[in-house]
């Protein structure tokens, strides 16, 4: 809970790329199977991946303005804010990429050769 | 900051041992440091040095020599293609030429030259005295040199690789690969990738641990960010091609069946492994080039780069994304369309971080006062050319269009726009920009402008028509074409235009040769730049900085134009650098830095011998391990030198 309240500066930096890498590999592996699945698991996984990426970005967003109630030295606080801002951007960008990937899963059934 | 890194000056009874720089007058300090960081004179010194500047320079010169070889191969191909059914070069030699051209450009020129600049510049830009693992640095150069020489000597003996720079199976496999040609290619990959991985490790450790005090993550020069991201991409991409090239050798030499579908192998496995490396490879070349642009641009528009955060974010995002695009090289292999479409999505979305960088650079120019010196011209040429290459990249990311233009000259045009426009233009700009720092002399601006316009116009005249040729259906990798195809006039135009590019590069090398002796004396900071490498002399001394700087601003030389604050307390009688925290660069410990040694060279010879022998017999790996082990044991054996002290 502490992490949610104060944020995690590097969360988006990790959550976005990791969610994307796992989802890409998973979706690619089950692309042929989707044809017979009766639903669109690739789109679902991409959506979950996007949610994870965004959750990380949100955690980082909380860290952008957290100064540790003055307990964190200014240099450390500035570096932390920089990392947090970068993480917000990375998390959001990868969420967008995962949504684009989800669109592919919705457009194609998996039965196309 | 006096005393920050240790106790105050300690003039002990043991002579120079343990003496610190605190309070030492500048002349004595420089004398001590010059002695501690010296490279012996003569040929032996050339062999044993671990100075990052000497090794970086050596890397750059070697890479440009390989560029000349690859360029001459291209000229020979254009000579053959200038008219239909020309008989100057036969199909066998032509196959070797385009393979050697691509292989050399990618493995022996583009990646090494980008790493070479990093080896030279990173310690200077982050305010330290050498890279981490200096002997590994020397080792990496010797391995790279031997790998490059090996494949070109093989070519001279008609054993040049001939299956394309990606050496697809089954063409390169045991069934169709001629003689030892693919084996030389595969082992050259092993040499160069060992070398690249070594440099990547050095760069990561150096940037993370050896930054000047105060250079927190948000104050790292963007160029350094770019090479840091590149080093990580190398670390994760290169093993894929090393594994695949080793599997290829095993198929050919030992009789394994990794890529033989008839025996349960998979030919497509090669393409997956190769392109899992191959696409990040494009970004290994491109990302440092964008770093050059972000370094050059602020100097010539007299303002900090716009959107520092956005550019850093984009570099990191591109680094990650580069690993999720590889299948777009395999759209024509019959993979499921749904699977392909995921890679289309990633391939198109990488345009976002690339676009962020482009807009940040344009905004930087917009808000500044541009000075159109030669480095700036190359940056502008880069933006124009790379945007075209990027647009055609988005086009070929689309499966239907890619299927139409696959293996045609459209793709040749596209990747030359990306690689030459996106990497070589900034690289040439970087040479003009940092030549004064490396040599102490300026390159001729007059020749530089001629150089730029010849290369820029010649390049566009050569490669833009290739888009049209590709759309007309001319395939890649053909040594000739029939007169009835109607491609003759366009090919003649392209071949003539390639002479303009050749003239531009000839002028570039002429400028280098003339200016290195007769160029105007540069001074420490001839461009009025803001980053730390310009705070030391041109060329820098062996120890880089007499006192390590302290960074208080992202543009340190603009923020503190008169004198930088410095660190004191380091030993001057032995090689020592300062290590700090990863995020905030707060000094933690003084670390010994390795001295000159012959063992990196001897180890590289042993490793090279084992690699070379394994082209002919698998037993070379077993017997070769003995001298390799001896080399490494001697390299790491404590010798009672200051670097071994606790």
Keywords:
heterodimer; A: 113 residues; mainly alpha; 5 helices; B: 646 residues; two-stranded antiparallel sheet; 19 helices; 2 strands; 62% helix; globular
Summed up, the helix count of chain A is 5
Gap between N and C termini of chain B, in Å?
25 Å
Counting DSSP E segments of at least 2 residues, the number of strands of chain A comes to 0
Which outline of chain A best applies? elongated
Rounded to the nearest angstrom, the radius of gyration of chain B is 25 Å
Mean pLDDT across all amino acids of chain B: 94
Order of secondary-structure elements of chain B: HHHHHHHHHHHHHHHHHEEHH
Q: Roughly how much helix do the residues of chain B carry, as a percent range?
A: 55-70%
Q: Report on the biggest sheet of chain B.
A: 2 strands, antiparallel
> Distance N terminus to C terminus of chain A?
48 Å
Interface with most residues: A-B, 38 and 33 residues
Biggest sheet, spatial arrangement of strands of chain B: 1-2
**What is the number of E strands of chain B?**
2
Helix and strand sequence of chain A: HHHHH
* Structural category of chain A: mainly alpha
Assembly type of the chains comes to: heterodimer
Portion of residues in beta strands of chain B equals under 5%
Shape of chain B: globular
What does the main sheet of chain A amount to? none
Provide the helix percentage of chain A. Answer: over 70%
Structural class of chain B: mainly alpha
Describe what you observe in this structure.
The complex is a heterodimer of chains A (113) and B (646). Chain A is mainly α and 113 residues long. Chain A has helices at residues 2-6, 11-29, 34-37, 41-64, 74-107. In chain A, helix 4 packs antiparallel against helix 5. The longest helix of chain A is centred in the last third of the chain and has 34 residues, at 74-107. Chain A starts with a helix and ends in a 6-residue tail after the last helix. The relative contact order of chain A is 0.25. The model of chain A has no long low-confidence stretch (mean pLDDT 90). Chain B contains 19 helices and two strands. Chain B has a two-stranded antiparallel ribbon. Chain B is globular, with a radius of gyration of 25 Å. Chain B starts with 25 loop residues before the first helix and ends in a 10-residue tail after the last helix. Residues 1-16 of chain B have low confidence and may be disordered.
């Amino acid at each position: 809970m502490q992490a949610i309240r104060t944020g995690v500066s590097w969360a988006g930096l990790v959550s976005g790329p990791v969610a994307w890498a796992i989802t890409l590999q998973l979706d690619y592996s089950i692309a042929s199977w989707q044809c017979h699945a009766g639903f669109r698991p690739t789109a679902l996984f991409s959506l979950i991946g996007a949610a994870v990426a965004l959750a990380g970005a949100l955690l980082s967003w909380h860290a952008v303005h957290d100064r540790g109630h003055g307990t964190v030295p200014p240099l450390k606080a500035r570096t932390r804010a920089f990392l947090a801002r970068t993480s917000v951007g990375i998390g959001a960008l990868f969420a967008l990429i995962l949504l684009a990937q989800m669109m592919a899963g919705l457009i194609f059934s998996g039965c196309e050769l | 900051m006096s005393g920050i890194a240790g106790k105050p000056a300690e003039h002990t009874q043991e002579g120079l041992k343990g003496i610190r720089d605190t309070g030492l007058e500048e002349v004595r300090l420089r004398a001590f440091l010059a002695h501690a960081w010296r490279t012996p004179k003569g040929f032996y010194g050339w062999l044993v040095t671990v100075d990052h500047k000497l090794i970086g320079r050596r890397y750059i010169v070697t890479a440009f020599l390989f560029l000349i070889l690859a360029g001459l191969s291209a000229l020979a191909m254009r000579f053959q293609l200038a008219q239909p059914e020309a008989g100057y070069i036969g199909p066998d030699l032509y196959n070797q030429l385009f393979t050697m051209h691509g292989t050399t450009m990618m493995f022996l020129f583009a990646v090494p030259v980008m790493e070479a600049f990093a080896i030279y510049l990173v310690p200077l830009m982050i305010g330290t005295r050498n890279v981490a693992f200096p002997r590994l640095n020397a080792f990496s150069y010797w391995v790279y040199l031997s790998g490059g020489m090996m494949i070109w000597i093989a070519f001279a003996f008609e054993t040049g690789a001939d299956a394309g720079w990606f050496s697809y199976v089954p063409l390169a496999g045991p069934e169709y690969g001629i003689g030892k040609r693919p084996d030389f290619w595969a082992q050259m990959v092993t040499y160069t990738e060992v070398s690249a991985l070594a440099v990547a490790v050095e760069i990561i450790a150096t940037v993370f641990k050896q930054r000047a005090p105060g250079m927190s993550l948000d104050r790292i020069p963007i160029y350094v960010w770019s090479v840091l991201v590149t080093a990580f991409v190398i670390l994760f991409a290169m093993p894929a091609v090393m594994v695949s090239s080793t599997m290829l050798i095993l198929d050919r030499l030992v009789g394994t069946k990794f890529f033989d579908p008839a025996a349960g192998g998979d030919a497509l496995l090669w393409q997956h492994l190769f392109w899992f490396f191959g696409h990040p490879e494009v970004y290994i070349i491109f990302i440092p080039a964008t770093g050059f642009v972000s370094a050059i641009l602020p100097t010539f528009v007299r303002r900090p780069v716009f959107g520092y955060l956005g550019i850093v974010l984009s570099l990191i995002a591109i680094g990650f994304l580069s690993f999720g695009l590889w299948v777009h090289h395999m759209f024509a292999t019959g993979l499921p369309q749904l699977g392909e479409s995921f890679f289309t999505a990633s391939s198109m979305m990488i345009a976002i971080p690339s676009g962020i960088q482009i807009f940040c650079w344009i905004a930087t120019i917009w808000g500044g006062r541009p000075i159109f010196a030669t480095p700036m011209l190359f940056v502008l040429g880069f933006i124009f050319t790379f945007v075209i290459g990027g647009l055609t990249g988005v086009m070929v990311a689309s499966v239907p269009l890619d299927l139409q233009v696959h293996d045609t000259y459209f793709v040749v045009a596209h990747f030359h726009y990306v690689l030459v426009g996106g990497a070589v233009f900034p690289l040439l700009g970087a040479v003009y920009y940092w030549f004064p720092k490396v040599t102490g002399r300026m390159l001729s601006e007059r020749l530089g402008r001629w150089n730029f316009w010849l290369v820029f116009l010649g390049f566009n005249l050569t490669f833009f028509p290739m888009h049209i040729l590709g759309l007309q259906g001319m395939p890649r990798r053909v040594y000739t074409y029939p007169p009835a195809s109607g491609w003759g006039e366009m090919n003649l135009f392209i071949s003539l235009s390639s002479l303009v590019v050749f003239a531009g590069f000839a002028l570039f090398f002429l400028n280098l040769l003339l200016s290195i002796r007769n160029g105007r004396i540069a001074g420490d900071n001839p461009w009025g730049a803001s980053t730390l490498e310009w705070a030391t002399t041109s060329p820098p001394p062996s120890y880089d900085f007499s006192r390590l700087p302290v960074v208080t601003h992202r543009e340190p030389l603009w923020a503190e134009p008169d004198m930088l604050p410095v660190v004191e307390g380091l030993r001057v009688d032995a090689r020592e650098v300062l290590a700090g925290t990863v995020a905030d660069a707060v000094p933690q410990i003084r670390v010994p830095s390795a001295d000159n040694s012959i063992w990196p060279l001897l180890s590289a010879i042993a490793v090279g011998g084992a690699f070379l022998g394994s082209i002919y017999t698998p037993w070379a790996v077993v017997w070769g391990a003995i001298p390799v082990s001896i080399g490494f044991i001697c390299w790491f054996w404590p010798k009672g030198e200051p670097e071994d002290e606790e």
